[in-house]
Design goal:
Blueprint (H helix, E strand, L loop, with lengths): L1 H19 L6 H15 L2 H14 L8 H6 L6 E3 L14 H7 E3 L3 E6 L7 H8 L2 H6 L3 E6 L3 E5 L3 H9 L3 H5 L2 E4 L2 H14 L10 E4 L2 H11 L12 H7 L9 E8 L5 H7 L6 E13 L4 H9 L3 E4 L2 H15 L6 H4 L8 E4 L2 H9 L8 E2 L7 H20 L5
């Protein structure tokens, strides 16, 4: 007994020394520790299931093969509750007995899609089919549409229509027409129809799209073939890579845009040193922030874990609704910056939107997710998948931050 007490003292001393030097665990360290704890406390079948889940969660390469989905545990966290003593428990319980006795904590996450109603189908499908759901065992994913903006006519839409009515106006005045969003392409198509331009060749100027989604919209909405797409789908890259037109002293650019769009295009082009650009910007549409009703506000503040933002305007509108919910909409900007964002992670379509989140000072940089190399729908879905992993860790495993 003396030896045992002495051993106990040594054990307690060791534990005391260890706990004095604990540091916050990062995600991978937490998973590893959780694995060993469960390996010690759980039965063999639970350990095997957890081992498979942990292997997928910590992997940096996501596989979409059916074999990965079939071996992933549906319930990565299993909490057993039983009043029986250790001697009363079966030595080798069957899987069916484990399922009957265990109380499973289901993984429920809520993702908010903030584009206009009817424009969220692509990102919804991409998120619902993302391999991260199977890897993490997220069987109850709630996806809600919470449109943050609605579009309205811009102050220069009539100017665009009149310009298109003039025969050969674009060909004589402009070398490029630059379009930087699917909505801008839709508005351009409507103006072309109003002006009676049914043939794409009648537009005259070369057509520039900021990315693949806008290129597709120009084809479907305007029947226009695109002449130039930058290597990255953002305004900075477009302004940097658009080639000057040979044979003219000044390359003239028509830029039909949102009234809320930044000055990135015109500032980037006019500051070029390898050629002279002149940009005519027409604000052909505007974005108006949507006001959430009582139920939407409750969902925003209580349920949403991740908000998917497709534009800086959506970010601004989301924060406006948060301010109303908190009763701080009339406070100065510097006071509202410390109020948070509804405690959500931001999954952004590209760098411009991510920058808007960061500059609002309502998100920490580590809680903003965006595709650095592949802006657009595919990269957006991948960023949302990464946010799902961190939201899962924070909400159900107690880690993440």
């Amino acid at each position: 007994q003396k030896k045992r007490r002495k051993g106990d003292r040594k054990y307690l001393t060791l534990m005391h020394r260890s706990t004095c030097h604990l540091r916050p665990l990062n995600g991978k360290m937490f998973l590893l520790l959780a694995f060993f704890v469960l390996n010690f406390l759980s039965n063999e079948s639970c350990v095997n299931a957890m081992g498979r889940s942990a292997a997928f969660v910590t992997s940096t390469t996501f596989s979409t093969s059916p074999s990965c989905r079939s071996t992933t545990s549906k319930h990565p966290i299993v909490v057993s509750s039983s009043s029986t003593t250790q001697e009363e428990q079966p030595t080798n319980p069957s899987p069916s007995e484990n399922n009957d006795d265990a109380k499973v904590k289901k993984a429920t996450l809520t993702v908010a899609l903030t584009r206009e109603l009817g424009k969220n189908s692509k990102i919804r499908s991409a998120v619902e089919n993302h391999p991260m759901l199977g890897m993490l065992g997220i069987e109850d994913l709630q996806i809600v549409e919470m449109p943050c903006i609605q579009h309205a006519r811009g102050e220069n839409i009539d100017d665009l229509t009149e310009l298109l009515k003039e025969e050969g106006a674009l060909k004589d005045k402009y070398q490029y027409v630059v379009v930087t969003s699917p909505e801008a392409a839709k508005v351009l198509g409507e103006a072309m129809k109003t002006a009676g331009l049914e043939e794409a060749a009648a537009i005259g100027a070369k057509v520039v799209a900021v990315g693949k989604a806008t290129e597709k919209a120009l084809k479907t909405e305007c029947n226009l073939s695109v002449d130039f797409v930058p290597s990255k789908a953002n305004g900075e890259t477009l302004a940097l890579e658009l080639p000057p037109v040979e044979g003219v002293d000044v390359t003239s650019v028509l830029y039909p845009a949102s009234a809320k769009a930044a000055d990135t295009i015109q500032e980037g082009l006019t500051s070029r040193t390898d050629g002279t650009f002149q940009v005519t910007r027409l604000n052909t549409y505007d974005t108006i922030p949507a006001t959430f009703d009582e139920e939407q506000t409750r969902i925003m503040m209580e349920d949403v874990d991740i908000a998917c933002f497709g534009s800086p305007s959506a970010v601004e509108a989301w924060l406006g609704n948060v301010d109303v919910a908190l009763g701080i909409e009339n406070l100065p900007d510097e006071d509202r910056q410390t109020a948070g964002n509804g405690d959500v992670l931001a999954a952004c379509i590209g760098t411009t939107t991510a920058k808007a989140c960061l500059e609002s000072r309502r998100w920490e940089s580590r809680k903003i997710y965006y595709p650095k190399e592949n802006p657009g729908m595919e990269g957006w879905a991948e960023s949302t998948g990464q946010a799902l992993g961190d939201a899962m860790e924070r909400k159900f495993w107690g880690g993440g931050w």
